[in-house]
Design brief:
Chain lengths: ~90, ~325, ~475, ~100
């Protein structure tokens, strides 16, 4: 039962990664791409981490997975913000 | 996970590794090359994990991709080098016209021949029976090495002399950088969001560094990975505008730089005086001595990588403030 | 006596840390450590002479697991030369650098270079050799860039990149050896290695890397600018010792560890490259405008002579003539070390006192700096290979070996090379001894001229007249 | 016999050749440093492939320690090269 649930979560996570990558390739300009990447990949990672946490036996590893997800969440959100701000600044300066 | 699906995974992983390496080396735009190199380093870390080398995966991600990438990115010039008008824009060949076609083909053939001979020798080596003399000796002596993680045992006990010289290499690099003069002025103070992240992330990084140092005795981790994580915390602080990164000044900085080699030598020489061979830890004390050396090594590695990122002696506080204010009026 | 081996590495390393922590008294600490290290080298030489080859297992682990330091006749002699040359250059450097900040930056790097040289000559483990090579390369580059001038930094940067490429190729060879034989210890490798694709490819890669670092003919482009633009004591050690350490490794691998893997064809190739180095280096030295460039190109040429010995030693069957030839090789290496170091130190004095080192304007130097010119002349004698110098004995053995094995080409090359060497040395002396009617008064700079004189005298008199023990020591193999 | 060890070993040879080719061809200093780092990564892959013994079996820890030492040595060499380059560009820019 646990294995079934974790594989469902992992597959869902992979779907969001796929969505993020397609978004990166298809979307026209920087801001929409950033939007797609940050949102889809973070959700994908969250689902992936949840699936793996279920799969792993020790509580410690699942807590570590959670910490990884939180760190990546914060880091990618901030870096998306910084990239967008830098792009906006360059546009106004040109 | 039967072998075929594992081979498919390996194929995909290796294809992306070689692809990233090729892309990173083929482009003439320096920033693009560095960013692709960082991606190459991260995928490489996944490969090390796949080959059951977690210690190396940690170090590759932290030092190979992370800090080398940060150093390279800081050095990469903003705009791509002005290509000579003759060559077409964004030509795939590195640096267009001035490397003649003949020499490029000669070097390509030479490299292909090198790859061929290496592969030929390697296949020959793999076909002969694997030599397990050393791994058996390591696992045999692991009990008396003071740690249960075999890689840390090899690094800090069996081949401790290598690690001593490697820390000397680090010390030489930072002394060479120091001799070149003042470091670069710091970055602008960060906006609210980045500042918020830094305020939360840096303590976590420092905590992780301590954990990695401690866990190195019985699980993947150790001084190098911990030092790199500590250096990452420093790099983030510097990017957020705090140019001093809390690095000590003058004499204390020299002590931290020389801590790794100094403590190693101290332990080695005192053991020599006690009649034991140089760096021959008594089994009872081995664990404690290794932890002591690893702590000093962590500090040295973090300080060296940070000073390399700063690019020399950190400028005194007031110079940075002036540089920041001056940049404020400009932008 | 084995503690002397670990002392040879630990002392300079401790000195480096001490000079880093106490910048104000760095000079005193550095010269003191230098003396202690030289005493340790003397003890080791005495130990090897009396007890034969010594080895020291670091950490008490046996050869397979841990790293073993080994010292035989060859490495003990090279360690003694290293200590004497670096000690003399240290005394010279204490007077050469005036600004305290410059001194504080110089000494730690200098002692780290010394550590890497000692560690390299003693190491008995292949991967440890890679780490010592890297330490040697980095400290040499950092010291070469100490000059601060753009030319020095550009030359140091090219030197670093070439060194990194060389180390990476050496590491590839080491990895292949570990893949094929599962061991890194040179002594066990000696017993285990046999001709085959793994051994040939690994030896080829390691040799290619080392030839890059020892600047043999086609790969020598980085050496002249790097050695010419470095501060005088640094270029003395770079030319006399750093390139020779890489040569020592080629010697150790080809004639000792991989002796049965090496083919005569490969040895002849090395000999050919050496011959080109001799001719090209001497020719460029003859045309050099500046004394330092002359000395740097002379290094390229002198290293060529050392590689001429390979085909001769391969062709000679093991016996007295082969031992004599091997002794000749070591004698030539030792003499070049002392002579070139003395020459660079003397050139440094001229550069500091006269403000330039262009050969054309050397008129009246003999009157202005008598002792320095004498040191240059003495070193020149050793570089040409005139009788009282050790180089004469070395070249004589080379010629004897070449005659014995019927390889006449090396005979011709050595003759032409020596003639060219005589030409470029006498060109310098010719300018220096031109009599100037109103010479500035003779100047003696004791603390700088004594080291140069002693080193040059070591090359000419001591090695030439008292050279016999070198051959006796070389019988002591690993 | 196409095992993972052989696959990674052959890829290592390709990466070493790629790195060497780029190191010899590039004239921009930064890309030569990147090329040397890529070549180093290739050699490290060679060592880790040699250490790999199979999916379930414990690998040989010695090459792992060698690669760790190699990574740290590579980053210190890169740091020195970049510092020299920055100083060189600074000199060229203002004269």
């Amino acid at each position: 039962m646990i294995n079934f649930a974790s594989s469902i979560l992992i597959l869902a996570g992979l779907f969001f990664y796929l969505a993020g990558s397609i978004g990166l390739l298809r979307l026209p300009d920087l801001y929409t791409r950033l939007h797609a990447l940050t949102k889809a990949d973070n959700l994908g990672l969250g689902l992936l981490a949840a699936g793996l946490a279920l799969h792993s036996q020790h509580l410690l590893t699942s807590l570590k997975l959670l910490l990884i997800w939180l760190a990546v969440l914060a880091a990618s959100a901030t870096s998306a913000h910084l990239i967008a701000r830098q792009a906006r600044r360059q546009e106004t300066r040109r | 996970m039967n072998t075929t699906s594992l081979l498919v995974f390996d194929g995909l992983l290796l294809f992306s590794i070689v692809g990233l390496a090729w892309a990173s080396l083929a482009t003439t735009d320096e920033r693009r090359s560095v960013i692709l190199f960082m991606a190459f380093g991260l995928v490489l870390a996944v490969a090390w994990g796949r080959l059951l080398a977690p210690d190396v995966a940690l170090a590759e991600a932290a030092i190979g991709a992370g800090l080398s990438g940060a150093l390279l990115l800081a050095a990469a010039r903003k705009q791509p080098r002005l290509l000579s008008p003759g060559s077409s824009k964004g030509s795939r060949h590195p640096d267009g016209a001035n490397v003649s076609l003949v020499s490029r083909w000669a070097v390509t053939l030479l490299s292909a021949a090198l790859a061929g001979t290496l592969a030929w020798a390697l296949l020959h080596a793999f076909s002969s029976t694997p030599h397990d003399m050393l791994p058996r000796a390591i696992s045999g002596n692991l009990a008396s090495s003071g740690v249960s993680n075999p890689v840390t045992a090899v690094l800090l006990n069996f081949r401790a002399y290598d690690t001593l010289l490697e820390l000397a290499v680090l010390l030489t690099a930072v002394l060479g950088i120091f001799a070149l003069g003042q470091g670069t002025p710091g970055y602008q103070p960060a906006g609210p969001i980045f500042d918020g992240l830094v305020r939360w992330l840096v303590p976590v990084l420092i905590l992780t560094a301590g954990y990695l140092l401690w866990v190195g005795a019985h699980a993947p981790g150790g001084a190098f990975q911990a030092g790199a994580t500590l250096a990452a915390a420093g790099v983030v602080l510097r990017l957020a505008g705090r140019s001093r990164i809390g690095l000590p000044d003058g004499f204390v900085l020299r002590i931290v730089m020389a801590a790794g080699v100094g403590v190693f030598l101290l332990v080695g020489l005192t053991l020599l005086l006690l009649g034991r061979p140089f760096l021959g830890y008594p089994p009872a004390w081995a664990g404690a001595l290794i932890l002591l050396i690893e702590t000093a090594a962590m500090l040295s590695i973090a300080a060296t990588l940070l000073l390399a990122f700063v690019g020399g002696q950190p400028q005194s506080a007031d110079v940075n403030a002036a540089a920041n204010r001056q940049r404020e009026e400009m932008s | 006596m084995t503690d002397a081996m670990i002392g040879l590495v630990a002392l300079p390393l401790t000195g480096a840390v001490a000079t880093l922590l106490l910048p104000r008294s760095a000079t005193a600490v550095a010269v003191g450590t230098g003396l202690a290290t030289t005493v340790a080298a003397g003890m080791l030489l005495f130990g090897v002479a009396t007890q034969g080859a010594l080895h020291y297992e670091i950490g008490g682990w046996n050869a397979g697991l841990g790293i073993t330091l080994r010292a035989d006749g060859l490495s003990a002699l090279l360690l003694m030369m290293t200590s004497l040359v670096v000690l003399a250059a240290s005394v010279y450097a204490s007077a050469y650098f005036s600004a305290p900040s410059e001194r504080a930056r110089f000494w730690p790097l200098w002692l780290l270079l010394w550590t890497s040289l000692n560690a390299l000559f003693l190491s008995g483990d292949l991967f440890n050799l890679y780490v010592t090579l890297e330490l040697l390369g980095l400290s040499a580059v950092a010291l070469a860039a100490l000059g601060g001038k753009p030319a020095a930094i550009a030359a140091a940067l090219r030197y670093l990149l070439v060194g990194l490429l060389g180390s990476m190729m050496f590491l590839t060879g080491v990895s292949l050896i570990y893949a094929g034989y599962g061991t890194l210890d040179l002594a066990t490798l000696l017993r285990v290695v046999e001709p085959g694709p793994v051994a040939w490819t690994a030896l080829a890669m390691m040799t290619a890397g080392l030839l890059l670092k020892t600047a043999l003919f086609p790969l020598h482009f980085w050496l002249p600018p790097a050695h010419a633009s470095a501060p005088a004591p640094v270029s003395a050690v770079l030319s006399a010792l750093v390139v020779k350490a890489a040569f020592y490794l080629v010697l150790r691998l080809w004639l000792d560890v991989f002796a049965n893997v090496v083919t005569p064809v490969a040895a002849n190739l090395l000999g050919l490259l050496g011959a080109c180095a001799v001719l090209w280096g001497s020719w460029r030295a003859l045309q050099a405008e500046r004394l330092k460039l002359l000395a740097a190109y002379s290094t390229v040429a002198q290293l060529g002579y050392l590689f001429l010995f390979f085909p001769v030693l391969l062709a000679l069957p093991p016996g007295p003539t082969r031992d004599l030839a091997a002794g000749g090789l070591v004698m030539l290496a030792l003499t070049h070390g002392f002579a070139k170091a003395g020459l660079f130190l003397a050139i440094g004095i001229i550069q500091q006192r006269c403000g330039h080192d262009t050969i054309r304007d050397l008129d009246g130097t003999a009157q202005h700096l008598p002792a320095t010119t004498f040191a240059i002349a003495l070193a020149g004698v050793a570089l040409i290979g005139l009788p009282p110098s050790g180089a004469f004995l070395g070249k004589w053995q080379l010629l004897a070996g070449a005659v014995e094995t019927g390889q006449w080409l090396w005979l011709v090359v050595t003759a032409i090379g020596s003639l060219l060497a005589a030409a470029y040395i006498f060109r310098v002396l010719g300018h220096a001894f031109v009599h100037r009617p109103y010479p500035n008064q003779p100047v003696t700079v004791a603390r700088q001229e004594w080291p140069a004189l002693l080193l040059a005298a070591m090359a000419v008199l001591v090695l030439g007249l008292a050279g016999a023990p070198v051959w006796k020591l070389l019988e002591i193999g690993i | 016999m196409l095992t993972a060890q052989v696959l990674y070993g052959l890829t290592a040879c390709v990466i070493v050749a790629l790195g060497l080719r780029a190191a010899l061809l590039h004239t921009s200093l930064l890309q030569r440093v990147v090329a040397i780092n890529v070549m180093g990564a290739g050699v490290f892959m060679l060592l880790i492939a040699v250490a790999y013994r199979g999916p379930g079996l414990p690998p040989d820890p010695l090459p792992h320690a060698l690669v760790l030492t190699g990574i740290v040595v590579a980053v210190s060499a890169t740091a020195l090269a970049l510092a020299l380059a920055r100083r060189l560009h600074a000199e060229q820019d203002n004269d």
